[in-house]
Amino acid sequence: MARKNFIIAIDGFSSCGKSTVAKAIAKKLDFVFVDSGAMYRAVTLYFLRNKVDCKDSNAVNAALTDIHIDFVPNPDRTEIILNGEDVSEEIRLMEVSANVSEVSAIKEVRVAMVAQQQKLGKRRNIVMDGRDIGTTVFPDANLKIFMTANPNVRAERRFAELTAKGEQVTMEEIKANLAHRDHIDSTRAESPLRQAEDAIVLDNSNLTQEQQLAFVMEEYSKRA
Ligand code: DC
After folding, report:
1. Residue 3 pLDDT
2. Nearest residue CA, atom 4 of ligand 1?
3. Is 132's C-beta closer than 6 angstroms to any atom of ligand 1?
């Protein structure tokens, strides 16, 4: 049966600019934007604050029943709310980035997040970015984009983003974190990062944001 809502899934490696493209598309089409990585980051922040042992499945399950994540759109950005607290800034810190791949590889965490993501996509036009959106969360998404970029370009972008916020990081730390996350994200047992067969590849190493938006809009127009 034909679905009335339209789902755009954007997957790819860390720091490829997925959220930037996804946000621009959502704005242009007046779709809801959901950053699924922010949900895994919020869970990771909770685990760090509450010293939840990732290997203790009872502790993980208890934590998951206590975690409530909401997205609150406002004119400048979408706030990520963890149990009533705006954690939009804190989830981007290096300490969270350093632990998020381990936390998001836990089966129970993925089951809980995927269920929430699927609920967000019901009866809404949505753009969701992540690692497994086109493969696991919405395997029948109307448009699937798989984003990639040269690792040095990705590290430079991430460095600029973090230093602009005043975080003290080195290029070496960033490159190591990206390589580490790529490895865990693509080799984990539970819905690893991989390109869906029907996804269209967008390598944005040498593309401006406008060019990326135009690329996705063209693919959207073919399917709308
Ligand atoms: O998109 P991001 O870099 O903010 O995501 C943070 C981490 O969350 C990433 O290293 C892997 C994980 N993630 C995931 O496992 N599945 C998703 N759909 C989105 C993110």
Report:
1. 58
2. 37
3. yes
Distance CA(47)–CA(99), nearest Å, equals: 9
185 - beta bridge partners?
none
Spacing, Cα 114 to ligand 1 middle (Å)? 12
Cβ(130) – ligand 1 distance below 6 Å? yes
Best residue for ligand 1 mutational test, from 10, 34, 36 (most atoms within 8 Å of Cβ): 36
Q: What is the DSSP string of 97-145?
A: HHHHHHHHT-HHHHHHHHHHHHHHTTTS-EEEEESSIIIII-TT-SEEE
Better-scored residue on pLDDT, 164 or 1: 164
For ligand 1, atom 5, the nearest C-alpha belongs to 37
Find out whether the beta carbon of 14 lies less than 6 Å from any atom of ligand 1: yes
- Domains in the chain: ranges and CATH: 7-218 (3.40.50.300)
- The residue count of the chain comes to 224
pLDDT of 15-64, one tens digit each? 899 999 999 999 999 999 999 999 999 999 999 999 999 999 999 999 99
Rounded Cα distance between 91 and 132, Å, is 20
Burial of 206 by CB count in 10 Å (0-12 exposed, 13-18 middle, 19+ buried)? exposed
| pTM (two decimals) | 0.92
Q: What is the mean pLDDT of the chain?
A: 93
